[in-house]
Amino acid sequence: MDARHTCCFTGHRPEKLPWGDQETHPHCVALKERMAAQLEEMYALGYRHFICGMARGADFYFAEAVLALRQAHPDVTLEAALPCAGQAKKWSPDDRSRWTQLVRQCDSYTLLQEHYDRYCMLRRDRYMVDQSSAILAVFNGTRGGTQYTLNYAMEHRLAIYLFDLNHPHLPPTHLVP
């Protein structure tokens, strides 16, 4: 897929989201609505291929929003970028089930490596950025994988659309490379 028409995603796991795993919280609902609206805008800008790292939390929201977008626009594709074969192995049964259902609905997947090591998530994040020209991000300003991925995206001059967890009703901030 052409990077000019590819958008990836980075975002926090439930432990770093203000509402945790309470997806019915009004701020979570508002964020999901803004993500869906932004994906429609990305489609209007010519993006057709979306890549998701398939982590718990915001990645799940993104994957579900892309699958909903694909219902309206059948030319949309979703790729699961899997850091290692056992990504969901230690998760709760509900999270593993949700992950399995999402991966099954993807148009393709890329397995970055067979076994877990401490760098596999970073390799996955670099892969996603390297394949893309834009990134959507749910970020609260804390150190970690999301910050690393955003820094890498800035270095590679991707268009960045940053969702503010403190103001989930607002559209994302667009940082131009």
**Sheet with the most strands, sense and barrel status:** 7 strands, mixed
User: How widely separated are the two ends?
Assistant: 21 Å
Helix fraction, binned, reads 25-40%
How many domains comprise the coordinates?
1
Average pLDDT value?
Answer: 95
CATH topology: Rossmann fold
Q: What's the CATH class, please?
A: Alpha Beta
The CATH architecture term is 3-Layer(aba) Sandwich
Radius of gyration: 15 Å
pLDDT < 50 runs, ≥5 residues? none
How many helix segments? 5
Quickly describe the structure:
By secondary structure, the chain is α/β, with parallel strands linked by helices. The protein is 39% helix and 20% strand. The radius of gyration is 15 Å and the shape is globular.
Report on the structure:
By secondary structure, the protein is α/β, with parallel strands linked by helices. It has one domain (3-175): 3-Layer(aba) Sandwich (Rossmann fold). 39% of the residues lie in helices and 20% in strands. The protein has five helices and seven strands; from the N terminus they run βαβαβαβαβαββ. Strands 4-3-2-1-5-6-7 form a seven-stranded mixed β-sheet, sandwiched between helices. Strand 3 (77-82), helix 3 and strand 4 form a beta-alpha-beta unit.
